[in-house]
Amino acid sequence: MSSPKQVNAPNAPSSLDIFSPNLFKGKVVFATGGGSGIGKHVVETMMRHGVDAVIIGRKTDRLTQAANELEAATGRKCIPATADVRDPKSIQAAAKLAVDKLGRIDFVICGAAGNFLAPLSHLSENAFKTVMEIDTLGTFNTFKATIPYVRQTHGAYIHFSATLHYQGSVYQAHVSAAKAGVDALSNVIAIEEGPYGVRSNVIAPGPIGGTPGMDRLSSLDDPSARKIRIPLGRMGEKADIANAAVFLFSNGAAHVTGQILVVDGGAQHTYSGMGVFPYPESVLEFEKIKKLVPRL
Ligand code: COA
């Protein structure tokens, strides 16, 4: 008798096949990290449901190009605001620009993040601090800059986190510590801002194809869904994260706050740490692994 075959999850559907096209009409999203990667895809998806957007990033040229692309793809307004989430003044100026140009802020995506792969023994003090500042302090700064406006609209926050810190993950001490802080901040925002009508939730993506994180692993012999051990059989797609974000910002999630929505095909329950790396060789033979993965 032949063995049963893995049944893969269907590909992520278009959010327009699930949610109303006018879901976010008249609303404004403010997205750090919205100019590239998963953040840009989430913003584009929300714009297809009627939202206007302000995207925040450090590189003006790249951001302006992204804003033009988003407008052309969706017919909605998208304003680029150059700012560094580590600099409270620049993020406050971006929030003011959003309100000056678009009149309101309903939704905030805290998506700016920094990541690279390195064991603790190879992390300088500044390397650790840099990721803590972008992810954790950046989330705090973004919250502080936007909350006066979000209270007015009874809006909502989504923070992009990770599943790395649920257990020890090699090469990810800095990111694990930073994302644990992000999760904790979201919980407190939920309880302190809930009485003002503001919700706060976290999306924790697993491995998502076509992102810098997965690209970095592409030179390993088998960085596949099978090697990472994803029960639903396929790698995550940016659209999986976008669909989760549309749901969490919609009134369908009106009674959902202080939650972490893991979108990883069940992977968090099957792998320990960065499951693609052999253990303990990943620790004992870092220099060898570094040659296999040149961008480490
Ligand atoms: N291994 C070890 N240390 C590293 C590193 C690596 N692969 N990459 C960066 N660092 C260290 C730097 O050496 C520096 O420390 P030092 O001053 O002691 O030398 C510190 O981290 C800050 O790096 P720097 O590049 O100066 O900071 P930055 O603010 O310009 O950028 C990042 C920080 C994290 C955004 C940058 O490293 C980066 O571009 N990473 C890849 C892209 C990315 O993170 N995308 C997000 C995906 S979630």
TrEMBL record:
<protein>
    <recommendedName>
        <fullName>2,4-dienoyl-CoA reductase [(3E)-enoyl-CoA-producing]</fullName>
        <ecNumber>1.3.1.124</ecNumber>
    </recommendedName>
</protein>
<dbReference type="InterPro" id="IPR036291">
    <property type="entry name" value="NAD(P)-bd_dom_sf"/>
</dbReference>
<keyword id="KW-0560">Oxidoreductase</keyword>
<dbReference type="InterPro" id="IPR002347">
    <property type="entry name" value="SDR_fam"/>
</dbReference>
<dbReference type="GO" id="GO:0008670">
    <property type="term" value="F:2,4-dienoyl-CoA reductase (NADPH) activity"/>
</dbReference>
<dbReference type="InterPro" id="IPR045017">
    <property type="entry name" value="DECR2-like"/>
</dbReference>
<dbReference type="GO" id="GO:0005777">
    <property type="term" value="C:peroxisome"/>
</dbReference>
<dbReference type="Pfam" id="PF13561">
    <property type="entry name" value="adh_short_C2"/>
</dbReference>
<dbReference type="GO" id="GO:0009062">
    <property type="term" value="P:fatty acid catabolic process"/>
</dbReference>
<keyword id="KW-0521">NADP</keyword>
